[in-house]
From TrEMBL:
Organism: Paracoccus lichenicola
NCBIfam families on file: peptidoglycan editing factor PgeF
Family: Belongs to the purine nucleoside phosphorylase YfiH/LACC1 family.
GO MF terms held by the record: copper ion binding; hydrolase activity; S-methyl-5-thioadenosine phosphorylase activity
Protein name per the record: Purine nucleoside phosphorylase
Lineage: Bacteria, Pseudomonadati, Pseudomonadota, Alphaproteobacteria, Rhodobacterales
Reactions that this protein is recorded to catalyse: adenosine + H2O + H(+) = inosine + NH4(+); inosine + phosphate = alpha-D-ribose 1-phosphate + hypoxanthine; adenosine + phosphate = alpha-D-ribose 1-phosphate + adenine; S-methyl-5'-thioadenosine + phosphate = 5-(methylsulfanyl)-alpha-D-ribose 1-phosphate + adenine
Length: 254
């Protein structure tokens, strides 16, 4: 069993410990082979706990200091203060988490959606958000940035980690209409696909929202759908008729 974790980092987030973890180096097997960190998957709970413990160790924090929320594709953000119980926060419905607290690692789970890690190292403020198409359209990115600024962040940098790319993201006309209803200029994030249906560019949409919010941002360039050896993908699992899928984890700590 491979136990060496593969952790992707980006120089834009220099000054803070961070990582976009691939599926390599985990204890799970079968559908979830590798580093599945999704507690809401049907994987064995003890394997998920072991995997999350490995992530915490890699981030330099105790397992109980790996802070996540109950992701629901919302625009809600939790500000983690020194008074918060991290185990209780894990049951809070939200899709962003920010803190100026040291000794904890903020983390989000994804399997095609955008994992976004944010930091202002000088101000000592970090954030993480889970931004699928619905959350991004509804404002989770801006809400995360606003919550960081409320803690004193001024010069925020952000990296979008492995997510589904436009070449793999076929959508329907109703999906496209929901974006055009907000702003007709959003048509630039869609192109025609091989089946005559729109193809959506999720990471470019995320970058636009980040940059419009005044954040220096980049995408790592990794497509979850196209690299099954390294990444879990909800859409790929669906296309293959699989009963479930693993969840990738991305984390950041001061």
């Amino acid at each position: 069993m491979q136990t060496t974790l593969e952790i992707l980092t980006h120089p834009l987030l220099r000054g803070v410990n961070h990582g976009f973890f691939t599926r390599k180096g985990g204890a799970s097997s079968g559908l979830f082979s590798g580093l599945n960190c999704g507690r809401r998957s049907t994987d064995q709970a003890e394997m998920v706990t072991l995997n999350r413990g490995r992530v915490a160790t890699a981030m330099g924090v105790p397992a109980e200091a790996l802070a996540t929320v109950k992701q629901v594709h919302s625009a809600d953000v939790v500000t983690l203060t020194d008074a918060h119980d991290i185990a209780a926060v894990a049951n809070t419905e939200a899709d962003g988490i920010v803190t100026a607290r040291r000794g904890v690692a903020l983390a989000v789970l994804t399997a095609d959606c955008q994992p976004i890690l944010l930091a202002d190292p000088d101000a000592g403020v970090i954030g993480a958000c889970h931004a699928g198409w619905r959350g991004a359209l509804d404002g989770i990115i801006e809400a995360t940035v606003d919550a960081m600024r409320a803690l004193g962040a001024a010069r925020i940098r952000a990296v979008i980690g492995p997510t589904i790319s436009q070449r793999a993201y076929e959508v329907g006309p109703d999906f496209m209409d929901s974006f055009l209803a907000e702003d007709p200029a959003h048509d630039r994030f869609f192109s025609g696909g091989p089946n005559g249906r729109p193809m959506f560019d999720l990471p470019s949409f995320g970058l636009m929202r980040l940059r419009d919010a005044g954040v220096d941002a980049v995408w790592s360039g990794h497509c979850t759908y196209s690299d099954p050896a390294r990444f879990f993908s909800y859409r790929r699992a669906t296309h293959e008729g699989k009963a479930d899928y693993g969840r990738l984890i991305s984390a950041i700590t001061l």
